[in-house]
Design goal:
Layout lengths: L1 E6 L17 E6 L13 E5 L2 H8 L4 E9 L10 E8 L4 H26 L9 H18 L3 E8 L2 H8 L1 H18 L5 E4 L4 E7 L3 H17 L15 E8 L9 H17 L5 E3 L8
Parallel strand pairs: 1-2, 1-3, 3-4, 4-5, 9-10
Antiparallel strand pairs: 6-8, 6-9, 7-8
């Protein structure tokens, strides 16, 4: 947890009253640093400043954190748009201050966990299918607006059912989590990594051409081919391979393409990779029209 404390001169007396545990960090800033608040990813912002300056800062922003405003008196018309917020009056009571801070941090953690559970896959921690469509449509709109490339890579673990049948579903889950970890280590911050189906993963690659996506996919395919997967009681590694299909936006200028369209292209390419021997990546644009 990160607490950011903002005051007129960057040195508030509140600092000496706040009780921190081992998992919470407190940073102090003066008002000139308010505009840079996002880079510190605060769980809680404490605003120890004049009411008018609080109003000026909060009026034009929706803060994705908890906010505690220190005031001389409880305001009647001060709007704070935040994940959750509270006020505390001067003179500060130390016990009350820490109770309020603890409650705000707890509320922040709870709401963040609820958001995460709604958009993330429970097993792998990756984004889920619902979130994928939301983000992919947004990225398509951005690519269309700025004329930038966009690619989608759909990956599927070959013979995944055999792993489940031979070693049990627990080892299937271990393999899925391992693949997810490997992908997470390769993707960029701006990419959208999603668990799409039981053994399928989709990566949305903004500002990436189909050829560039192919380089990424081939690198990962080779990494999977060499991975050490040795289920319990086995003496040798179980060979693992992966197949993939790549699509790019736009493909047909005259068609209004959306997330469903672009994913469908990638599904066709993946199907072709599976039908032609597995352990390969196929680009949709290079398929024959009849495939």
């Amino acid at each position: 947890m990160n607490i950011s404390l903002y005051s007129e001169n960057g040195s508030s007396d509140l600092k000496n009253l706040i009780h921190l545990d081992d998992e919470t960090q407190l940073r102090e800033f003066d008002l000139s640093e308010l505009e840079n608040y996002k880079q510190y990813n605060p769980s809680l912002m404490i605003l120890d400043m004049e009411k008018d300056k609080v109003r000026e800062f909060c009026a034009v922003r929706k803060l994705e954190c908890s906010v505690l405003v220190v005031v001389d008196e409880i305001p009647q018309n001060l709007t704070v748009r935040a994940l959750t917020y509270d006020y505390i009056k001067k003179e500060i009571n130390e016990t009350e201050l820490n109770v309020r801070i603890k409650a705000l941090l707890k509320t922040y953690e709870t709401k963040k966990n609820l958001v995460k559970s709604a958009i993330c896959d429970e097993l792998t921690g990756l984004y889920n299918r619902k979130y994928l469509h939301h983000r992919l449509d947004a990225e398509i709109s951005r690519a269309k607006r700025y004329g930038t490339p966009l690619s989608v890579l759909l990956l599927d673990i070959d013979y995944f059912k055999i792993v489940n049948d031979m070693y049990g579903y627990d080892w299937g889950d271990i393999l899925l989590k391992k693949i997810a970890q490997m992908l997470s280590a390769l993707v960029r911050k701006e990419d959208v990594l999603t668990r799409y189906g039981d053994e399928e993963f989709i990566i949305v690659l903004p500002e990436t051409t189909e050829a560039q996506a192919m380089i990424f996919a081939e690198r990962f395919r080779k990494d999977v081919e060499k991975m050490e997967f040795i289920p319990a009681n086995e003496q040798e590694r179980h060979p693992i391979t992966i197949s993939g299909g790549i699509s790019a936006y736009p493909y047909m200028e005259e068609v209004e393409e959306n997330s469903n369209t672009v994913i469908r292209y990638a599904e066709h390419a993946l199907y072709h990779a599976k039908q032609s021997g597995k352990n390969k990546i196929v680009e949709f644009s290079k398929m024959n029209p009849g495939c």
